[in-house]
Amino acid sequence: MIGVLTWTPPAGGIRQKSVTVEMRSLFHMRVAWAAVAKGPRTPEAVVRRRVLTAARRLRKAGTGRLVVPEAFTYGKQLEKGGVTPVATVPLRRALAADLARAGMAARGLPGSARVAVAGDQLSGELVRTVTELALGHRYVWVDVPYGAEALANQLRREYGVSLLTVPSRAQLEEADVLILFAPRTDLRRKNPVVLPLYDETAALPPLLLPPALEDQMPAGCSRPQLLAAMVEGGILRPGQITVGSPAGG
Length: 249
Description:
It is a single chain. The chain has nine helices and twelve strands. The chain has helices at 44-60, 75-81, 89-94, 96-107, 124-136, 148-159, 169-174, 211-214, 223-232; strands at residues 2-8, 19-26, 29-37, 65-67, 84-85, 114-118, 139-143, 164-165, 177-180, 193-196, 207-208, 242-243. The longest helix is centred in the first third of the chain and has 17 residues, at 44-60. The protein is elongated and about 65 Å long. The mean pLDDT is 93.
């Protein structure tokens, strides 16, 4: 079961519980919801203690992973309590092609932009990303330990598109867009657009929903984590998420 942790502002002199945990329905998904009292003057030591208490209660309620607030800095307390934040890597990979297109649009890159996709295996997410991009872009390189030639042959047969395989390090570094499904410490990563899909801390552009769903989104949560939990729970499809323009793009 997924959990949610949000901050509760001070009640203005009214007595309130520092930590509450209750079961709620979120988009028809049952979640354990923890509200932690935290204001601008709450001492950090007190906040850490309350977060640890909330984590332990969530764990006792059957929660192993939870959605946390934006800019959350109490990971150690969660770890001590036996819970972890919801991972956004699966969501990033599911939206990889859309993220790449948003990055290209923000940079003003043309359809003839060179796109490189690198990974440590030919996963389903990587295949979907390469296929989507190859259908719309002339120059797409794929760099994986094995399986690239078979994928290139399949795309040529089914869609009549060409896929460039076995790129050199120079070609990867000169690509306009570099999509990384796994770390590549050998690359300079000076490309105009770089998407490290394995990195939970990498900034994401706005992720938008249809108005009917947007109106139901709770405030005070990490939006990428919440969307990742909804996709994992089958409540939301990646295709229902629109990738907006990156900040400053």
